[in-house]
Amino acid sequence: MDLVVATRDGLYCPPGRFHIDPWRPVERAVITHAHADHARAGHGAYLAAAAGEQVLRIRLGDIPLQTLDYGQAVEMNGVRVSLHPAGHVLGSAQVRIEYRGEVWVASGDYKLEADPTCAPFEPVRCHVFITESTFGLPIYRWPGREALFSEVDDWWRRNADAGRASVLFCYAFGKAQRVLASVDPAIGPVIAHGAVAVLNDAYRRSGVDLPAAPRVTDVADRSMLRRALVLAPPSAQGSPWLRRFGDHSDGYASGWMRVRGNQRRKGVDRGFVLSDHADWPALQRAIEATGAQRVFVTHGSAHAMVRWLRERGLDAETFATEYGDEEDGDEEDGDIGDPATPADDA
Question: What domain of life does the UniProt record list for this protein's source (predicted)?
């Protein structure tokens, strides 16, 4: 018996009678992380990692949520289920499923790079591994953390010295917090769009030590805005909200910036190759570390990854899913905000 199968509602564990990141309402859902394409409203019961509770409740409200610490296990109809760090964003988890001596792991989204805002990826040995493949092509190789944020700091510093704000468009959940924790605060103040600020607060309540990043409406000395790094979701691009920063430089942080021409298509001054997903070499390392001889590949460049795995002697195939791409951030930005704040001051 396969421990996980693809159904019209989402990935399903037949013996455990639960779904993993289902995209339609189900009785019981195990959630790998709080991005909108993996965590949806309407399920009868939710199970997720304790580290992600604050963000999940912001996203989904008062849901019937059970949480587990990483490595803690529960029995679900005779199936042993535990959650293990995925390194993707705060609270992201791989789902380990054990039944009658067989172990499957559903990874959700993951990355192997160091990230000060979430627990690092933990390889989990298994017989069958379910992997994402968002960036499953050889072209996608990420720069090292030090080199990447040195580029961001240099861009910000040059703009600050010229008296121009630096607006960096990045996903509100995960990427914005990673940037905030990694840039040089000596350059100037960091300002957060409301969609980012709400999630920054959730990170702090979860025990993540983030530097200060006020909303623009909380800055008394407006002259400071000319030296600021502004963290904003992609949906803010071209919005009236940006007018308060006057003449500014803008950048875009995404793994898609690795592809020539995407910076131009986004209409920004700078592109930074920053992703919360594994790049091509990291996908290979993660799969190998599991020891799995059978691999299911979900969204992204799934067919290319399946072909590569088969060439190396593994039993590989795809799972059809409805997971999206949160790299651009447009999907979720409208779902997170502060109802006490007017939209223009978000």
Answer: Bacteria
Residue 90: is it exposed, middle or buried by C-beta count within 10 angstroms (0-12/13-18/19+)? buried
Are the beta carbons of 235 and 330 closer than 8 angstroms?
A: yes
pLDDT (tens digit, 9 = 90+) per residue, 176-214?
999 999 999 999 999 999 999 999 999 999 999 999 999
pLDDT, tens digit (0-9, with 9 covering 90-100), for 90-109: 999 999 999 999 999 999 99
Could you tell me the two tokens for 228?
Answer: 């600021």
Task: Look at the block and give the residue holding tokens 């594994």.
Answer: 278
Detail the DSSP E strand segments found in the chain: 5-6, 11-13, 18-20, 29-30, 46-49, 65-68, 73-76, 79-85, 93-99, 102-106, 128-133, 165-169, 190-192, 229-232, 248-253, 270-272, 294-300, 315-318
DSSP state of 10: S
C-alpha Rg value of the chain to the nearest Å? 20
